[in-house]
Design brief:
The complex is a heterodimer of chains A (319) and B (281). Chain A is α/β, with parallel strands linked by helices. Chain A is built from 13 helices and 14 strands. Chain A has two domains: 166 residues, Rossmann fold (3-Layer(aba) Sandwich); 130 residues, Rossmann fold (3-Layer(aba) Sandwich). The longest helix of chain B is centred in the first third of the chain and has 22 residues. Chain B is globular. Classes of the chains: A alpha/beta (319), B alpha/beta (281). Chain A: Belongs to the transketolase family.
Chain lengths: 319, 281
């Protein structure tokens, strides 16, 4: 198992804030909008340096999405910022008609996704957003795994023409990816090469998958770990190549098992290479109040859950 | 004036013929609101709107128009065709398979003249504001026009947008409300009263003007006047009274013809009231 270390922990939303600032410096057409959550979305640096390119919309997410769609007409590249719940479910029809169907170059940037939002509870902990967004024709869906990858992804989507959903989170987590990485939309990242099982992880679950990989190595199981940061378009080639070698797969995501990354992988494998698969995801449930660590543990999203799923799926492979 | 009022009325007569023929041709669509807004569209595209013949999505340096109540697509399509955005023969494809003239306007099929999809109601004011904000950032002093149904104002997103535009001094924005008092289930006063739209928008900080949308001279003058109000720190709301079905006697003044197509006999009756002025498609 390849050794991953970290010297600091940071939140992925700060990676977004840094990336937005960088993208703003690189391209004067980058503009930002926020629905009364500037501090939470870490947009301060962008606002300080480009005040005229920032629009405070107030608590009116539907209006924000519509304004963003309109701002693309004339060449701007709008980044909208609010929590994931208010970036998707609350404004689904606005995104569907004014952004996706109209093919507008809007970047919907969504913080506080999933259970790790923590104490605010289930009203704010959306676990359905990947599913909602990946179903929209033409929508790119990205869920990066740490500060550096989120920053790189934010810069990359400014250079991509078309609607994008960028999902990130609230808690501080290890920073373990290359600070100078080139982010390629739709290209999987090989975290660790192995032969016994393919672990496919996205977002906050990538570090958990690395922790699981270390435990599995102690048990004599050689896990291949792939980071799928782009859930749509899915890197079919990387997944199929790995699964051909390992013969079984575990998908890991901080999202409902219905509609998430796991189902995208299952659709691919069912049609191309039927393979035993286990899902580490929430099980058709809402979350609740608690600390991020408590919630990830209670809802089965810890390294130990990945280890158990691997042992189970390897058993199915042999059966 | 680029045209006389008589010339504009003749264009409007042809557009009305197109509308009833298009809706009859596919036996679906929304003639009532389309006919009610025909004079507005004619005035806008043939007299007021400063647009470029070669359509570009970005619309730099030209006035933009957004149709929020997308179901009145027949009047927009016919107007765009007569204004030269595409050949009028294409009007025969309205609502049919493989057409660029979808039931509700879209950008998906790349129809020149359309910059955003509409149909699901209440979204157009936000989009128009966004386009106006980009024009401001680009130092582009041209105008953004939009049209909204009155019933459509029951959608809450409009009021988010209505609150935003004055606060942010979006003052090259001229929104028109088709104030015909009708919606699918009946008169707006019975379905969900809008009460005083003038008082509501003024309370939100808009400059409100009132026009008669079925009097060509009045609507031309009203839209020109609206332009003179731009750049003074307030968005402009044109409260435009119309008759649903205007120009076809049996369709007027009732919600019945909101979304119903005429049969052969009804089509003949309608066409007899609408002189062919520019040639049918």
């Amino acid at each position: 198992m390849k050794k991953y270390t970290y010297t600091e922990k940071k939140d992925t939303r700060s990676g977004f804030g840094a990336g937005l600032h960088e993208a703003g410096k690189k391209n004067e057409n980058v503009v930002a909008l926020c629905a009364d959550l500037v501090g939470s979305l870490k947009m301060d640096a962008f606002i300080k340096d480009f005040p005229e390119r920032f629009t405070q919309v107030g608590i009116a997410e539907a209006n924000m999405i519509g304004i963003a769609a309109g701002m693309t007409i004339g060449g701007k590249i709008p980044f909208t910022g609010t929590f994931a719940n208010f970036s998707t479910g609350r404004v689904y029809d606005q995104i569907r008609q004014s952004v996706a169907y109209s093919n507008k170059n809007v970047k919907i940037c969504a913080s506080h996704a999933g259970l790790t939002l923590g104490e605010d509870g289930a009203t704010h902990q959306i676990l359905e957003d990947i599913g909602l967004m990946k179903m929209l024709p033409g929508m790119v869906v990205i869920n990066p795994c740490d500060y550096n990858q989120t920053k790189a992804a934010t810069i990359a989507i400014a250079e991509y023409e078309g609607p994008v959903y960028l999902r990130f989170g609230r808690p501080v987590i290890p920073v373990f990816t290359d600070p100078d990485q080139k982010f390629e939309i739709g290209k999987a990242w090989m975290v660790n090469e192995g032969t016994d099982v393919t672990i496919i992880a996205t977002g906050h679950m990538v570090w958990k998958a690395i922790e699981a990989g270390e435990k599995l190595a102690e048990l004599g199981i050689d896990a291949e770990i792939i980071n799928i940061h782009t859930i749509k378009p899915l890197d079919d080639e990387a997944i199929l190549k790995s699964v051909k070698k390992t013969g079984c797969v575990v998908t890991c995501e901080e999202h409902n098992k219905f509609g998430g990354l796991g189902e995208s992988v299952a659709r691919l494998l069912t049609t191309e290479l039927p393979t035993p698969q286990e899902f580490v995801a929430t099980n058709d449930t809402f979350g609740e109040s608690g600390t991020p660590d408590q919630l990830m543990s209670k809802y089965g999203l810890d390294a130990v859950n990945i280890v158990e799923a691997v042992q189970k799926v390897i058993g199915r492979k042999k059966a | 004036m680029k045209h006389t009022i008589k010339e504009l009325e003749d264009i409007a007569s042809q557009i009305r013929r197109d509308i009833v023929r298009m809706v009859h041709g596919c036996q679906s669509g929304h003639p009532g609101g389309s006919l009610g807004c025909t004079d507005f569209f004619t005035a806008l595209y043939f007299e007021v709107l400063n647009y470029k013949k070669d359509f570009s999505m970005d619309g730099i340096g030209e006035d933009l128009f957004f149709l929020s109540n997308g179901h009145i697509s027949p009047v927009w399509y016919s107007t765009l065709a007569h204004a030269g955005f595409f050949d009028k023969s294409e009007l025969a494809t309205f609502r049919k398979l493989d057409s660029r003239l979808q039931g509700h306007p879209t950008t998906h099929e790349h129809l020149p003249g359309v910059r955003v999809a509409s149909g699901s109601l209440g979204q157009g004011m936000s989009v128009a504001i966004g386009a106006a904000l980009t024009k401001r950032l680009n130092g582009d002093n041209s105008y953004v026009f939009s049209l909204h149904g009155d019933g459509e104002l029951q959608e809450g997103q409009n009021w988010e947008a209505a609150m935003f535009a004055p606060f942010h001094k979006v003052d090259h924005l001229i929104c028109t409300v088709d104030y015909n008092g009708q919606q699918i289930d009946g008169p707006t006063d019975k379905v969900l009263s809008l009460d005083s739209l003038q008082a509501k928008f003024e309370a939100f900080g808009w400059h409100v003007i009132n026009t008669d949308g079925n009097d060509m001279a009045a609507i031309v003058e009203g839209l020109h006047y609206a332009k003179t109000l731009a750049g003074k720190g307030k968005p402009i709301l044109n409260l435009m009274s119309t008759q649903m079905g205007a120009g076809v006697d049996y369709m007027m003044g009732s919600h019945k013809w909101h979304g119903t197509a005429p049969n052969d006999e009804q089509l003949a009756t309608a066409l007899a009231q609408l002189p062919e002025t520019l040639g049918d498609y």
